[in-house]
Structures are given as structure tokens and as C-alpha cells.
Amino acid sequence: MPYSPSGLFPAERPSRPTYREPNPVSGPAVAAGATGTIAWLVVFGLLGRSLVGYAWWTLIAGALAWLAALVLVRFGDRGVATGIAIVTAGGWSIAAAAVAARWVISGDWPLW
Fold first, then answer.
1. CA quadruple 34, 35, 36, 39: dihedral positive or negative?
2. Any transmembrane segments, and where (predicted)?
């Protein structure tokens, strides 16, 4: 009588599926997103003629950049989106520090 395995311990292991990222994050893509966002924030920051203008323009430019990053995360290059998000957070931090410094010095909230 031929031996038939029960299936509890199969003789040959089934191959496991391998999953690959369709758009892997790469260093050059992060650098490209960061460089473009630095230029974007500088151009918008230069539109403001005072600290108040600079802060509001930076906030608006950062919000638009994050919208672009969200679209890129879903449909495009996640590395570029990462660079955009990192530099936007840094730009917002610089604007927040400038506003806080003015607030501490003058005692008056500068954005209203």
C-alpha cells in the first residue's frame, strides 16, 4: 500500500508571498522634496513685509505643501512627500519661534 501523507506535515513547504513597496522611499527623492519645499517656503515667506505677514504666508504655504504631500503619499512618490513634510515642519517651527520671540519681547500677541 503506497504511503500518502496526512497533510499535517507537508513534505514540501509552500512558498511564502513576498510583498514589495511599489514606490520605495529613496534618499534622492527625499532630498528633491526637501529642496523644492525650501524654495516654496522661502518664496512665500518673502511675500510677507512684516513678522505677521511672514507667519501667515508660511502657514498658508505649509498647508498647501502638506496637501501636495498627502496626494503624493497616496498616488505618487512617498520619498518626495517625506521631504516635503520634514521641511514644512521645520519651516513652521521657525515661524512659530519668531512669533513666540516677538510675543515674549513685546508682551502682545503679534498675529492678531
1. positive
2. 25-48, 54-73, 80-105
